[in-house]
Amino acid sequence: MSRFTQGLTLIEVMIALGMLALISAAALTAYLSSAQGNQAAALSTRATQLIAAVAGQVNQHALTLAVGASEVRYYSPASFTTPLSAPTSGSNCALAVDSLNYCVVISNTMQFNPTQGGVNVLSTPAELYTIRACWRKRGALTCAEADTIY
């Protein structure tokens, strides 16, 4: 009988199983890292979409604040059209460590009117709104921010 018809030795099988375990561990690590990256990107994308939705409300005059005023709103990840509760004044997000919701701080930062040759360019001064959307990522508060002019 030749060596090839007798089968594999125990050492050969153990080496093959060790190599399979090593390759499987590397593939699993890559998969988990990719899944975490995708989740972080999804949270950031939702925050950007939420900022755009709120900026649209500001630009359509559906949301107005006095100069220097701020308000906080909370949204679920499933719906950016209706806040979870009535807006509150202030500029701090209070999301629980295990919260999946988004906190949005809308601030009317300032009023301005550019001039050209000493004459105001706009008939009505513009207002600068800053919109900051925050969410919990691995327990830490993470935020994205944008400005819009009204």
TrEMBL record:
Coiled-coil stretches: none
Record's subcellular location: Cell outer membrane; Periplasm
Domain of life: Bacteria
Keyword Magnesium listed: no
Chief subcellular location: membrane
Listed GO CC annotations: cell outer membrane; periplasmic space
Membrane association type: Single-pass membrane protein
Keyword check for Transmembrane: yes
Ranges that cross the membrane: 7-32
Gene3D superfamilies, A to Z: Glycoprotein, Type 4 Pilin (3.30.700.10)
InterPro entries for the chain: N_methyl_site, Pilin-like
Keywords for this protein: Cell outer membrane, Membrane, Periplasm, Transmembrane, Transmembrane helix
Name assigned to this protein: Prepilin-type N-terminal cleavage/methylation domain-containing protein
Organism this protein belongs to: Deinococcus soli (ex Cha et al. 2016)
